[in-house]
Amino acid sequence: MELEKTIRLLKEGKHLSEERVYDICLKSQELLITEGNVTHVDTPVTICGDIHGQLHDLLTLFEKSGGVEKTRYVFLGDFVDRGFYSLESFLLLLCYKIRYPDRITLIRGNHETRQITKVYGFYDEVMRKYGNSNVWRYCCEVFDYLSLGAIINNRIFCVHGGLSPDVSTINEIKAIDRKQEVPHEGAMCDLLWSDPDDVDKWSLSPRGAGFLFGSNEVEEFLHTNGFELIARAHQLVMEGYKEMFDGGLVTVWSAPNYCYRCGNVAAVLKIDDQLERNYTIFDAVQPQDGVGNAIIPTKQPQMDYFL
Amino acid sequence: MADRDVEKSLKRTVRPGINTIEITAARELHARTVNARNPRNERAMQTTTTTTTMAKSSASFFKEPIPRHVCNSANNPPCKHCGRMIIPSPVATYPLEDNPSISINNWTITSRKRPILNSEELEDWETNKLSGLGALPEMIFGNNYISIKNVEKNWSIDFRALDALSMVNLEDSGIRVSYSKDWINSKLKTTAKEVHEDDLFEISSESLNIVKNYDWTYSTEYKGTVINYNDNDVIDFKTDNDLVLPIDKLSKPDQILFFDDMILFEDELADNGISILNVKIRVMNERLLLLSRFFLRVDDVIVRVYDTRIYVEFDENKVIREFKQYESEYNDLMANQKRVLAHSRDPKALLRDSNWVVEHIPLVKRQCEVIQF
């Protein structure tokens, strides 16, 4: 079957024709357009954080967490940029989505935008691999249809970044017109960008844009909506995950040895039917195989006569 | 099976895509690694990469220096002199642990590379060591360092992330991301509307206050940490701004015995640019050069480069430290380099390259200091 073949090629990091990519993007859009801004998902489910184009580590993720044939997944966004295989990673997730629609939920991250991918690697990668930007454009079209959040068993809220002062109930997220480039301000932007911090109330980031929220905001949001946990990604964590605010919020990070140089481990969070949390930790793929062939590029210092 | 696929893809070199480009690059990388481990190959590589005109005149440059260094790290692959090569071992990419060291005369140079700080360390830095900073950089290589030590005088200059971040200003930097005004204005508008329509909705313009003020660009004028291990014999730099670094000596392609390049901290400023502190060092038979570079780019707002160079001439026991500050408005740089940037396929790529940026923005301040042991 054509789709199975495509999945196999993607897993091997092989080149796909522009037409094939177009086809995958179109099919995924048709699927995604039927989903709401917030998708409802049942347990058991595995929550995954940022991937950032680390294809080999994404394959490890599936291997360590049961695989898409047997497990349901929620991905919290940031599939692309920074790693060397953004395209293959994103397309593989889309192919799985087409093949097993009810087993993969994809949430939009702040990197799933035209503007950010132009600066942080995905656009360059497509130009390098295809010599033109068509494939990048097809993918950006898909980005606009990704959902903004997911709710597991009506108890766990999944989002890429965090909360927004403009959002106190889920209905307010449902009212957003999501099918657009992520705007620079407003609820949609906050959900993808904001960070938890040790603050007493909503506060402005010193950068002059973007919100920080603290335990009070988390408590209020959980209480208002009858939730017990906010699962988000967006921030690098050395240990792969970090719980904050008495376990009311967790950051999940799924890109091990981030940017091929941070030396961190990665994690995914499995939620079982009793809503118990089980973290699976995994390491980055070794840069070389048993006989010394490089599997992934390494950031070794290049000796130079700098002045 | 996989190997056969690789062979196939190598033959189809014309075809664009990941097979050819990435795998060829990977193979080259591997070949370099293997070559680097073999001292004979290393010499062969050096001559082949030199241009022919260079090769003729460079006979004296490549004259075998009298070996006098000592390798202090046992895990490195062989070098022709003392059975060890000192360039940080190519196998140590993961788990990113390596602690190479070399000694020449009274000088010992050591470096260490470790992963980013773990949560425990990070919390300690956040709550104790750097409590003034609202948020720390996303990636802190807090256990990395480069140290240049004079063993006889028990003096050293080290480069470490903690000391660099301690120098970050704890006041408002005045710098805002380019769309800050629009962002705040739009919030003020929605606030006014929401409060009017729905009393339950509590967002006062108070939430648009910055609670913690600090320089979120992490700009640091860090010039290294001077350590006097003998309290009663304190040696420090003396300012002499007339001094210049001996570029002629440093331009000679003397064999590099020790090289390292590391990041101390890095933050992408929530995708508004980059703030990065990078240190690199090369040690030759007679001298060493270290460059510590802080590079800041806030897209559409500002670019900054702070360079600290440490130069040691081993036989003279002299250390020179040069500090240079470069800065420009982002738009000024764009306007000055309009033609170059317009012809570039990806103009943003140039702006990501600190080497290109530093050559095209004005020098704001220069300072030079010296120690004669």
UniProtKB/TrEMBL annotation, chain A:
<dbReference type="InterPro" id="IPR047129">
    <property type="entry name" value="PPA2-like"/>
</dbReference>
<feature type="domain" description="Serine/threonine specific protein phosphatases">
    <location>
        <begin position="107"/>
        <end position="112"/>
    </location>
</feature>
<protein>
    <recommendedName>
        <fullName>Serine/threonine-protein phosphatase</fullName>
        <ecNumber>3.1.3.16</ecNumber>
    </recommendedName>
</protein>
<keyword id="KW-0464">Manganese</keyword>
<keyword id="KW-0378">Hydrolase</keyword>
<dbReference type="GO" id="GO:0030289">
    <property type="term" value="C:protein phosphatase 4 complex"/>
</dbReference>
<dbReference type="GO" id="GO:2000002">
    <property type="term" value="P:negative regulation of DNA damage checkpoint"/>
</dbReference>
<dbReference type="GO" id="GO:2001034">
    <property type="term" value="P:positive regulation of double-strand break repair via nonhomologous end joining"/>
</dbReference>
<dbReference type="GO" id="GO:0034399">
    <property type="term" value="C:nuclear periphery"/>
</dbReference>
<dbReference type="InterPro" id="IPR004843">
    <property type="entry name" value="Calcineurin-like_PHP"/>
</dbReference>
<dbReference type="GO" id="GO:0004722">
    <property type="term" value="F:protein serine/threonine phosphatase activity"/>
</dbReference>
<dbReference type="GO" id="GO:1903432">
    <property type="term" value="P:regulation of TORC1 signaling"/>
</dbReference>
<dbReference type="Pfam" id="PF00149">
    <property type="entry name" value="Metallophos"/>
</dbReference>
<dbReference type="GO" id="GO:0000724">
    <property type="term" value="P:double-strand break repair via homologous recombination"/>
</dbReference>
<comment type="similarity">
    <text>Belongs to the PPP phosphatase family.</text>
</comment>
<keyword id="KW-0479">Metal-binding</keyword>
<dbReference type="InterPro" id="IPR029052">
    <property type="entry name" value="Metallo-depent_PP-like"/>
</dbReference>
<dbReference type="GO" id="GO:1902660">
    <property type="term" value="P:negative regulation of glucose mediated signaling pathway"/>
</dbReference>
<keyword id="KW-0904">Protein phosphatase</keyword>
<dbReference type="GO" id="GO:0046872">
    <property type="term" value="F:metal ion binding"/>
</dbReference>
<dbReference type="InterPro" id="IPR006186">
    <property type="entry name" value="Ser/Thr-sp_prot-phosphatase"/>
</dbReference>
<dbReference type="GO" id="GO:0051598">
    <property type="term" value="P:meiotic recombination checkpoint signaling"/>
</dbReference>
From TrEMBL, chain B:
<dbReference type="InterPro" id="IPR051330">
    <property type="entry name" value="Phosphatase_reg/MetRdx"/>
</dbReference>
<dbReference type="GO" id="GO:0005829">
    <property type="term" value="C:cytosol"/>
</dbReference>
<protein>
    <recommendedName>
        <fullName>Tip41p</fullName>
    </recommendedName>
</protein>
<comment type="similarity">
    <text>Belongs to the TIP41 family.</text>
</comment>
<dbReference type="Pfam" id="PF04176">
    <property type="entry name" value="TIP41"/>
</dbReference>
<dbReference type="GO" id="GO:0031929">
    <property type="term" value="P:TOR signaling"/>
</dbReference>
<dbReference type="GO" id="GO:1904262">
    <property type="term" value="P:negative regulation of TORC1 signaling"/>
</dbReference>
<dbReference type="InterPro" id="IPR007303">
    <property type="entry name" value="TIP41-like"/>
</dbReference>
